[in-house]
User: Fold these one by one.
Assistant:
Number 1:
Amino acid sequence: MDQEIARDIVAACEQASTALTAAEEAISRMPEGDERSQHLRALASLLASLFGGLRAPAVRQYPDLDKAEPLGDPDTLLDASEQESVSRLTQPDLELIDETLLANSAASWRKVARVVGTAMNTLHKQFPGVPDGFYAQRVAALVQSGRLQAQGNLEYMRFSEVRLASVGQSAA
């Protein structure tokens, strides 16, 4: 694809991301239950497709298109109700979340939004009230522990990528 088309795709993805963020805010106001879980799964699937399948190939071909700056609060910032949901997690819960994040990572670079979205989709029944920002925090912890490598700003899922750490390599 030529650079102009790639630029248009990246711009369209940013617009879609803004709209999906609004949808995420609306979904978060829904009462916990099956309907909310279904909406969160659909949103996670859309995010994974948007960033992994549409935007990533354009940015891989033209890395200079990935120079956008994050706007707003970091994704890893949790509000009081989100923090309350997270505080109920046990050590085995954290280990399951971490293993699921690792299972959705690869040897090649993947957007953190994709890794988080697919992990949330997998674990939606076990952890329906756990926000995406917490999953992003766990990704950062996996990078800190050396199990994942990262590039970009881990506080913003759309502006960072991770890959499985190779033997003998440390976290970025």
Number 2:
Amino acid sequence: MKAAVLVRKGDARGAFELQDLPDPVPGQGEITINVELSGLNFADVLARLGLYRDAPPLPLVLGYEVVGRIGAVGPDCGTLSPGTRVVAMTRFGGYATRALARSYGVVPLPEEYDGVKGTALATQFTTAWFAAEEMVRLHEGDRVLIHSAAGGLGTALVQIAKRHGCTVFGSTGTPEKLDYLRSIGVDKAICLAGTNFEQEYHRVAEGKLLDVIFDPIGGSFTRKGLRLLGSGGRMVCLGVSAMVSPKPNLLRSLRSVLSFGFPHPIVLILQSKGIIGINMLRIGETRPEVIQRCLRECVTRGVAGEFQPVVGGVFSAQDVAKAHEALESRKTKGKLAIRW
């Protein structure tokens, strides 16, 4: 098989090599997939920069989801059979013409459904569903802030929050994306560039506090966000993109960690606020039935048209470095994918 192998950490240019590797062989509860499309996620950028502690050692094939056809099926995989078109969540290994997946992370995908949108229904929409539907409960009229709302995960969270009748505040790092945020249903769009985040929120929100914050940025945004939560408010931490830098270094990483602040449980009790951290790899390892449930829900709603993933760009396998640069630049909208 062909694979885009991460051979060195750091800058995207020079980090990847297209290599011929042995085809994966499915074991118990596993299947192999002949890959049509590989999805990209910001966690891939973190792994490339050496900031994702769960990443295997180099050389490494990144990738958390694929769309393609089942090639081979191991024992105990239920009714999954070769030739079926599927969307699958992979634990790395997705940047390849053949990928290995656990059967609980595989769901059939109709032939007519757009494959790039299908990749978005996996990691990003499934993470959003788990965060918004299983870890918190949204109600009509709730005030919800979604950071990085123009990305694939943010777009999914906006759609889920709007289906509950929430008032959605969406942030972006560039003013060019403000109109896009409004077009996908964000009620109050906030540009973080060159502004005081807290002051800007209070300006557009007329001083009212939030019920839920979905935060994939981390750092000082988490600390400041906690001050914007009202009693009963929940902070859902989904990532640490604030730690990403073109030239990562230990001192900058330490500053980023310290900028989160040190919320104490007693303070959270007194203020009646909560902090929730989400790592879908851990959920897959310990509660695979949750992955299956959430992925099936998202595929069902995507195929029915209730969810509308936004395609931000499709790259060839030879241009995987360009795809990473685009994702790292934070200038993209929606889902990025690699076509094999």
Number 3:
Amino acid sequence: MELNKTYYRRHLPHYQPEGYTFFITFRLTGSLPHTAIEKLKSEYKNHINIVDGIQSQEEKRIKYSELKWNYFENFDSLLDKYSNNNFLKNISIAKLVYDSILFRDKKDYDLICFTIMPNHVHLVFSPVERFAESLNEKQDKKLLAESLKEKERIHAKGRIGDSTYIVTKILQDLKKYTARECNKLLDRSGAFWQHESYDHVVRNEVELNKIVEYVLNNPAKAKLVENPYDWKWSYCKYL
């Protein structure tokens, strides 16, 4: 079993290396019109086809990251403009999602910040290490073997196809729970969240500060409040 694969692609490429902080955005199903999505995807695909031809793997990775960020900004601007399926405007729904995100802090991830918008959520966290990556050399072979088996068992819970993606597993659990409970409150059934989420690896402190500022300012940028600190559904561990 391959336990350390960090990259896969659905409609968007997903790069999920261990030991990093991630910026996540996920949205309500049906929150954007199909035509707007297809236009963005078409433009993104054209750029991806060009990047696919780059020989250097490091340059290709950097270009993929840049394209994803540009795609995200365009996508997020659309989300701020449309009001399709904005269930998160409901106070009870927003509170349930807010509490669910906070509940997982220090369990699934080290939570840095998040904000809940009317039709999407921005989230920044670092996955919590759920097993030791190495053992003291003095430990006996039996303990080492047991640890490796436990590591494999935990990774297997997060498998997609033949590989493991801890970030994806965290989001699956969060979205599954909140979708079920929100549907109960709304007395509805069916999909609640859009299946795929946007994930971006935060590579340094400068980028982290930029992203945290982006997340916390989103309500003001969308003209939901004048002062971003007045938005009830934002959280930041540094404030």
Number 4:
Amino acid sequence: MAREAGVSVATVSRVLTGSAPVRPDTRQRVERAMRDLLYVAPGGRGSRTGVIGLLVPDLENPIFPALAQEIETTAAEAGLASILCNTARAKMAEDVYVHMLVERGVDGMVFISSELTNLEADHGHYARPARRGRAHRARQLRARDAADPLGRGRRAGGRRDGRRPPPGAGAHAHRLRGRPPHYSPTRRKTAGLETALTRAGIGFDRGLVAHAEWGYAGGAEAARQLLALNGRRPTALIASSDVMAIGALHAVDAAGLRVPEEMSIVGFDGVSAGTFTNPALTTVAQPTSEIAATAVDALRRLLESPERDVPHSVFRPRLVERASTAPPPR
């Protein structure tokens, strides 16, 4: 984190523990670095419990249970039991769960899509393990959605035959994550899409970006917003998750448009539900096994040696082409 923020390790420690004053601009840089990283907090050097906390934001979106299962299985193989905490739909928020896990003396915590991604949230609860003496030092593991695979998935929405689409070959839209724009994954996906479209010779129009609530209903709502654009209706939709893509697919069908002949739809995550839609959903699949193995390995190494640096990891998803995409209509 210190390298990411351009500050010393001591400065990061002061921000996390609140042990000494830090200039506001420096604190902002450190917190921004925290938001850009998937946070892994190791336990203390004392007695080990063999238990870790696993915090997920949602259990309705299949990608989170899939990741949680992979991490739990991998952790069990390493001799670690997991306590699963659902921070979005449950009555206890993430900061409450962190407090509970610290009190129970877990060896470490793994956060999947944590509140660190919320650029406007208060992140003081991440310092609690350090303040309570449970964590010797905070560590992080970078886990980002690579822009290029997202771009390849986006281009597949216009040309399933793999050829580069000609400039202006239909309008295009990106249905972002149901979270608001101040969430870092939303911003990263927007930037990735813009880069990919530019490289493909297709202009990026922010007027064709729709935001709605997370989940199936949000995907359907966002699709309806884009379908209502008179004279600018897109010929392809990209959803920020497969669940939202399924909602968009049903909204497009209800509007009387054929998928993929009149509208291509691409999801993101690679959940199994996408194989059962009609037509089957083209998606950009996340490497859940690789993410889980890397996270658990990082946490295990930190438990063995809290002073060890954890290398940054960038995970590359893969495009899975199915029947929901086709060349744009002439």
